[in-house]
Each structure stands twice: as C-alpha cells, then as structure tokens.
Amino acid sequence: MSIFRRKGNEFERKQAAAASAHQKDFREGYVHIHGSEKKADELAMKAYGDKDNDGKPDVPFMPFPG
Question: Rounded CA gap, 52 and 15, in Å?
Fold first, then answer.
C-alpha cells in the first residue's frame, strides 16, 4: 500500500483552466508597470543625485542588454 495518492481528472481540469486563464492575460511585448514618472524621478534623484544642478537625476547610461 502506498502513502501517495494518484491525481485524478479533477486536478488536471483545474490545471488546464488555470493555464487557459493565464494565456488570456498574457500579451506579448507588453510590460505591465504600475507607477508614475514623478515617483521614478524621485527614486532616481535619491539613488544618483544631481551633481550638475540641472534639476534632473544623473542616471548613468547603460545600454539595453541584447
């Protein structure tokens, strides 16, 4: 006698439903981001500062990988 149970058809149906729901929410090439430009500038100012006093954060230039 085994202590493990075999997963039945109900489990497989739930997995298939979850996979199809995920597929409906997915859009290729779209990155879902919450936030605002103002908040991003505030965080960048805290992280990098403003050495040249132009009112904009001095974010280092980093090319996009790939």
Answer: 55
